[in-house]
């Protein structure tokens, strides 16, 4: 018996969802994900973002990922959050990924899909995965592609091919709202861009522009500043003027901008060297160069805050602290598109114990010697000066 057009159209949403199961191993860029589940990590475009979270039993912070899916999985495995198949086993752990998923690597979309999958799985187990905006997320929504790779453009081109097919399928059905064309208004040629890159360039603009399908789906729920118990998270750094402006206000305005409600350009507090996603005042590897007085002033304006945790500036020596461990820097440049650093993650238990989980096989005695001859003079420590901090080494 031949199915009517109407009966086939009624199955389109299920057919599209089934593609997700087919591609969930990330062997391709992916097509669609199932509808977002109702969870605090997946707010609608009009709901409030949760800026303040209570102290969890276990808190994990993961630095910049920059398009390297393998290293991303290694970091989550290191913290005991996923099994060998990439499924969530972290229980009630709260995880913060501090931004910069985009640029420098070839698997940006695969990581976004991977993180979204883990968000939904974590929520079912009483856990939480919170993702944040880095400067590279802001740049890409603005159309600044200075750090995109050739393979990164190809990944977005592949995504656009599948997305277009999905829209064409939806367009056949009267029961479904006619999908918007994400390429509307995007030029077909770009001066200075080689012809071989034009399709990928157009796809990236379409996906990531304000209210673009990837931007609105994966980036708009991101936080730009976050407080979890005693820890303040931000990609670059936070100043007192930002706190005075309003942390919730910042999160919601950036969310609205990504959703296409605030014009083309991002708010000023996420642009420029003193913005939340670009600041480096607290990230210099030489601790004495950090502006500790500004840090103390900022933390004093946030009730209960003891430390600021940030990414953005690569710490070749590994995760470390400055300003009496009030500034903790967790970007270890793990992506092969950066310095190909060994994955490390930060762990904070409920009693405020802070330690580094490292994959560096040199530390077989479960100690990471922060006071060693290879460190730069004046490098900040994550430990009291009288001795090294215990860490856990996992394969």
Automatic annotation (TrEMBL):
InterPro entries (UniProt xref): Calcineurin-like_PHP, Metallo-depent_PP-like, MPP_Shelphs
Calcineurin-like phosphoesterase domain segment(s): 58-313
One protein family per Pfam: Metallophos
Gene3D superfamilies with a match to the protein in the record: 3.60.21.10
GO molecular function: hydrolase activity
Name of this protein: Calcineurin-like phosphoesterase domain-containing protein
Organism (species): Punica granatum (Pomegranate)
């Amino acid at each position: 018996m031949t199915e009517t057009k109407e009966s086939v159209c009624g199955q389109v949403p299920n057919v599209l969802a089934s593609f997700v199961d087919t591609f969930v191993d990330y062997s391709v860029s992916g097509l669609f994900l199932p509808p977002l589940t109702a969870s605090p990590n997946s707010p609608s475009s009009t709901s409030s973002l949760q800026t303040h979270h209570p102290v969890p039993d276990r808190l994990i912070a993961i630095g910049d990922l920059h398009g390297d899916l393998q290293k991303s999985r290694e970091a989550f495995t290191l913290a005991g959050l996923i099994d060998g198949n990439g499924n969530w086993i972290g229980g009630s752990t709260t995880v913060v990924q501090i931004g910069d998923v985009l640029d420098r690597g070839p698997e940006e979309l695969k990581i976004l899909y991977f993180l979204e999958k883990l968000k939904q799985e974590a929520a079912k187990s009483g856990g939480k995965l919170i993702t944040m905006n880095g400067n590279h997320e802001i740049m890409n929504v603005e159309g600044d592609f200075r750090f995109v790779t050739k393979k990164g453009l190809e990944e977005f081109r592949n995504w656009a091919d599948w997305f277009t097919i999905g829209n064409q399928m939806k367009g056949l059905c009267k029961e479904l709202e006619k999908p918007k064309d994400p390429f509307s208004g995007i030029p077909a040629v770009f001066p200075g861009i080689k012809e071989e890159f034009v399709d990928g360039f157009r796809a990236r603009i379409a996906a990531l522009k304000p209210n673009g399908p990837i931007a609105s789906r994966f980036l708009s729920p991101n936080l730009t500043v976050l407080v979890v118990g005693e820890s303040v998270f931000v990609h670059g750094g936070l100043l007192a003027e930002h706190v005075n402006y309003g942390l919730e206000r910042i999160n919601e305005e950036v969310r609205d901008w990504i959703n296409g409600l605030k014009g083309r350009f991002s708010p000023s507090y996420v642009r420029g060297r003193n913005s939340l996603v670009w600041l480096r005042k607290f990230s210099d590897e030489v601790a004495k160069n950090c502006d500790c007085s500004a840090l103390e002033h900022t933390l004093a304006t946030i009730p209960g805050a003891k430390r600021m945790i940030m990414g953005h500036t690569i710490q070749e020596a590994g995760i470390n602290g400055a300003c009496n461990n009030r500034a903790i820097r967790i970007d270890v440049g793990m992506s092969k598109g950066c310095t190909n650093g060994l994955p490390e993650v930060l762990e904070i238990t409920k009693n405020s114990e802070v330690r580094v989980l490292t994959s560096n096989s040199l530390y077989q005695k479960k100690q990471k010697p922060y006071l060693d001859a290879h460190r730069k003079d004046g490098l900040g420590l994550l430990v009291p000066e009288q001795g090294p901090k215990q860490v856990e080494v996992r394969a």
